Amino acid sequence: MGARKVTKGISMNDSVERDHDTVGKVTARWSRRALLGALPLALAGCAVGGRVERWDYEGDASGGRLTRRAHGIGIGTSPEYVSMYSEIDDGRFVVDPLDFSEVDSDYLRSIVAYRGPERPGTIVIDPSEKYLYLVREGGEAIRYGVGVGREGFAWSGRATIRRKAEWPTWTPPREMTLRDEEAAKWAGGMPGGPDNPLGARALYLYQGNRDTLYRIHGNNDPSSIGHAVSSGCIRLLNHDVIDLYRRVPIGTPVVVLPA
After folding, report:
1. Interval 170-182: pLDDT, tens
2. In whole angstroms, what is the distance from residue 44 CA to residue 244 CA?
3. Residues classed as catalytic
4. What is the spatial distance between Cα 213 and Cα 175, in angstroms, rounded to a whole number?
5. pTM
6. Separation of CA 202 from chain center
7. In this structure, what are the phi and psi dihedrals at residue 253, rounded to the nearest 5 degrees?
8. Can you give the CATH number for the domain in which 218 is found?
């Protein structure tokens, strides 16, 4: 049986092997409270405007060509981004190409200069700016746009990734099932797949041996990126959480800054 396609499903309000490190360089700095700055420099034709179209990118960045297909991606989107957010088939499900009209281009994956105190290999999340940073060697970080917890559900502190899952099962906490009728339907667990609100991958945050119940995960609503909409968890585009998943091992430290 072929892989199933990912389409929009419930949100609960609550490629992959290629490294695109040359896409867009920006700068991020630390303040007392959060990462600030992240001042964009011309992100290689990333501004979206005009008629909306969908493109497939064929070939590499130097010799590839663009082939028009119906709908979805704004004129001016660079070939690197089209390739980065193209269809992913992992053998279980298919993640569709990103519809760039649904996401602010500021929240697309990029490389930034990092001058903070955390060591390479650390994940730093800045809820106020809606970014997740994976710190790397050489004073750089990979920056991903995220959706964060809405008021009353935000969490901050230090944690460690103790578990990773592909197409994870979603089991809402009891508190959520009591306040959300839709979540209550899945009190016993919702199987992984296109409609699952955890998306394509999940990273589970622990403090010592205690599960914090907070996750870094994908999602089936790209328009939620850059907003405070979840019940505390950190959500990424499915393309981005797949990329992050393959880069971070069990034991990765995570720092969530105060909002």
Report:
1. 888 788 888 888 8
2. 22
3. 217, 233
4. 12
5. 0.72
6. 10
7. -75, 145
8. 2.40.440.10
